[in-house]
Amino acid sequence: MSTSPRVWFITGCSSGFGHALAEAALLAGDHVIATARRVADLEMLEHIGAGRCHILPLDVTDAGQVAQQVAAAQAVWGRLDVVVNNAGYGLLGAVEECSEEDIRRNFETNFFGALNVIRAALPILRHQKQGHIINISAAAAISNYAGFGIYGAAKAALESLSESLRLEVAAYGIKVTLVQPGPFRTRFIGKGMTHATATETYAGSSGKFAAYLEKVDGKQPGDPERAAALIVKMVQEGQAPLRLPLGKYAVKKVRDVTASRLRELEAWEQAAGETDG
C-alpha cells in the first residue's frame, strides 16, 4: 500500500458524500481539490486541510468551465490521482409527471456533468499512466422505485458508461469504480431533491414513495463519514471494484435483484435460446 499523498479532485463538495469524502481524504493526509457551485460552503475544508485543500468553483454542466477547472486543478500539485464525480441531485416524480425541462436538467448534472469531468480528466490521467475515477451512483441504479425513473435512468446511464470506460482505459493504468450508496444521512432528500408536480393519478405509486422518503429523512442507517472512510481506504489500498454498494440495504438489494434476475432467466432460458437460427 502506497503511503504517498494522493491528489483528489471531487465534485459536489458542499455537503453530503462530497464533503465527507473531501474531509476523509484530508484527514488521511492526502491533497484535495474541492469543487462546488457555491465555494462559500467549502471554507471548513480549508481549515481541516492546512494547505492541502484547494477550492475551485465548478458547475459540472458547463463543459467549458469543467475543462478550465480540471486543468487548473492539475496545475496546483502537478497531477490528479483520484477523480470523484459526486455532484448530483434527485428528481422525484412519476415519468409522466416530470416536465421535459426537469428531465433534461437532471441528466445534464447527473450524467452529462460527470461525463464532462471524465472527458476533461482523461488526457491527464492517460499521460500519468495512472489514476482512479470514482463515479457516485445510487441504489436506484441497482433496481429502481416508482417515482425515481428519471434520476435512476441518469445513474443507470452513468453505470453503463463506467463499464465501457473501465475497459477502454485499463491499458493506461486507470481504474474505474462505481459507488452505490443505500440510504444515508445526507441532505439528499431535502436540499438535494427536485419535485415534479404530483398528481392523483400516481398517488398510489410515486406518491407513496415520496411519502416514504419524507418519513425516513434524517433516520437513514447510513453514516456518510463511515462511507467516506471506506472509499479512502479502498483507494489507499489500491483496490478498484467495479461496483461498491454501501450499507446493508444496498448489499441486500444487490443480492435480491441478482436472485430475481436469475429466476426470471431460468423461466425464459429455453425459449430465449430457441431464437438462435
Automatic annotation (TrEMBL):
One of its GO terms (molecular function) is oxidoreductase activity. Keywords: Oxidoreductase. Pfam families: adh_short. It comes from the Bacteria. Residues 6-187 form the Ketoreductase domain. InterPro entries: KR_dom (IPR057326), NAD(P)-bd_dom_sf (IPR036291), Sc_DH/Rdtase_CS (IPR020904), SDR_fam (IPR002347), SDR_oxidoreductase (IPR051911). PROSITE patterns: ADH_SHORT (PS00061). Belongs to the short-chain dehydrogenases/reductases (SDR) family. NCBIfam families: PRK08263.1 (NF006114). This is NADP-dependent 3-hydroxy acid dehydrogenase YdfG.
